[in-house]
Amino acid sequence: MVIELIVVGKTVGAWLESGIREYTDRLGHYVRFSQSVIPELKNAKNLREEQIKTTEGELILSRLAPGDHVVLLDENGRLPDGSVAFSEWLQGIMNRGTRKLVFVVGGAYGFSAAVYARANEKISLSRMTFSHQMVRLIFVEQLYRAFTILNGEPYHHR
Questions:
Q1: Which of 16, 87, 113, 118 is close enough to 146 for a disulfide, judged by CB 3.0 to 4.6 Å?
Q2: Over 80: is that where the pLDDT of 45 sits?
Q3: Mean pLDDT of 131-151
Q4: Pick from 83, 78, 60, 76: which is nearest to 129 by CA?
């Protein structure tokens, strides 16, 4: 299986980039993982919120293939009951023979209706709200943690 993380806008902050790179490298031991960046829109200050979401949505959708299993990281998504539950969900996705699992972090205004319509599901990382920048690091760490749980490795202390 291949896992891809699509994000809107580049990661800002060397410390975030370093942390993301650390867990991305670790994930390579378990799965083919990549991150794709949708460039920030030019002249976004002159656009309405809905225009921004629509344009970002078109760019996100252009990167998806028909067979991709798409999961939006969304504050209103299903909240897994902890890291173990997330790892069990991930195992279920793998057991179904999913070839490509795509997680998407939207821009500052969230997702367009078209992106919501294309998604297979939505999950939330927390009841708390994190910046779109922080979500990237938190997510790749949780994905790495899930693989260590599935492999019975000591990273996650139960």
A1: 87
A2: no
A3: 96
A4: 76
CA–CA separation, 117 and 113 (whole Å) = 6
DSSP annotation string for 1-67: -EEEEEEES----HHHHHHHHHHHHHHTTTSEEEEEEEPPPTTGGGS-HHHHHHHHHHHHHTT--TT
Instruction: Tokens for 70, please give them.
Output: 């798409």
Question: What residues does 21 pair with on adjacent strands?
Answer: none
Distance, CA of 34 to CA of 110 (rounded, Å): 21
Greatest extent of the chain over all pairs of C-alpha atoms, in Å: 51
38-45, Cβ contacts within 8 angstroms, sequence gap of 24 or more: 38/6, 38/7, 38/8, 38/9, 38/63, 38/107, 39/9, 39/10, 40/8, 40/9, 40/10, 40/107
Indicate whether 158 pLDDT > 90. no
Q: How confident is the model over 132-142, as a mean pLDDT?
A: 95
